[in-house]
Amino acid sequence: MTKRRERARAEMKEKVLFLTGKLITIIQIVVSAMTVFLLKRAGLLPDRPVILITVVLILLIVVFALLMKRKIRAGRFWAGFFLAVLVSAGMGFADLKLYQLTHTLQTITDTREETTRVGVYVLADDPAQSIEDMPGYTFGILETQAREETDNVITQINEFLGTRIAAEPCADAAGLADALLNGECNAMILNEGFVGMITETEGYEDFESQIREVTFYEWQTVIEEPTDAGESSEPVSEDGVFTMYISGIDTFGAISARSRSDVNILAVVNTNTRQVLLVSTPRDYYVPLSISGGVKDKLTHAGIYGVNVSKDTLAMLYGIDIDYYFRVNFSGFEQLIDALGGITVQSDYTFDVEPSFHYDQGANYVNGLEALAFARERHVFAEGDRQRGKNQMAVITGVINKMMSPAILRNFSDLMEGLEGSFESDIPYDELAGLVRTQLAEGGSWNIVTCSVDGTGTKASTYSMNRQLYVMEPDQSTVDHAKELIRQAEDGEILVQE
Q1: Mind listing the pLDDT tens digit for each residue in 11-46?
Q2: pTM of this structure
Q3: Rounded average pLDDT over 440-464
Q4: Using an 8 Å Cβ cutoff, are 23 and 80 in contact?
Q5: For range 126-146, the mean pLDDT
């Protein structure tokens, strides 16, 4: 009787072990299958590593299942069991990171919305604290520029107050500022990007401190697919060449906000020859905007009307198609550099930036804040904004070199997590994944060549401000030279830094 009970107990124990082994094997199969699925879905690894990982996972499942096979020693069973648990937990963690990575990449790529923010402003000492305090106010507005967004705000105010507000049209932003300061209107409705533009105008340096924002209206605007000069060319997957507009906007707030673009760089990427051509255009370049009907303006002002206006304006200037945009603001710029662990920039000069930044001629290893100061400074240079453009391209070169290094690519998931929200682009996820996949498969460095267009400083009236502003009249010979370099990069000719 006792032997029968012991035999039954042993059989029950063996059955429990058998079912336990089966359960953990099933879990290991499911988790491993999820890993392979997420790897294929992410598309960041070449096919060969994915196949190798799949084979290894299958072998581990078989080995651990054999260790947990029925009617073998308990020691082997528990060894197989704990190893299977350990591998399954590791794969589960990897699956979570891979999912987060894919989500992050999808969030920061293929972005086709931007934020329009319009404020209602009064003089700093005006008693009004909200729209409710403003019945009977006359609101100054721009007569034609950004009129659709202004009318949108007027409609919302009318609905809120239950009446029609009085609106006083002004020809341009400076005229609107004058109307408010001189008491010709009690308030003004204006895209916040115009406020910064007014403040940088001679005679209006204190304007921002003279006014106060009572409230603001904000909404998302769909970035339409370009149809004319900026119309996309063949995808990179077909011809290996694409052009990206890199825009650095002058804010620390939301990356999607419409704002002046102080950094305007074209990156012509040829994945076949592994070359990147960076073309910098000064912020004050005096060119027709894509929406101005031939009237010239500062290039930086184009960003107030949306990233597509900046992109299409540059496409008109250089007579090319621009496929994608990449947009970053000041806070995102710092976050990007810090997430990379710092970068190396090549400086043409030894110089200092107040309060405490120092750069030597040659290589400088910088963090995010140091890189931002390096890229923004212009006053210490005789060439002013021209040298700033060169320094900005030096920073982009440092970013590219760092991102193409094996160490960064191996920690790509952690990097992308750190970068979420720091920049945005409309480059499709598949295109970006393809670049990462190719770099992992082939490795090696890229040939990065930079050039800047030039011009002559003068004063002229602009589309956005009917006032004499400092502008840079383009030197057409430098524009033509940039066009030729772009053609060479697109055609696969080997570029040499001048």
Answers
A1: 666 676 777 888 888 999 999 999 999 999 888 888
A2: 0.81
A3: 89
A4: no
A5: 93
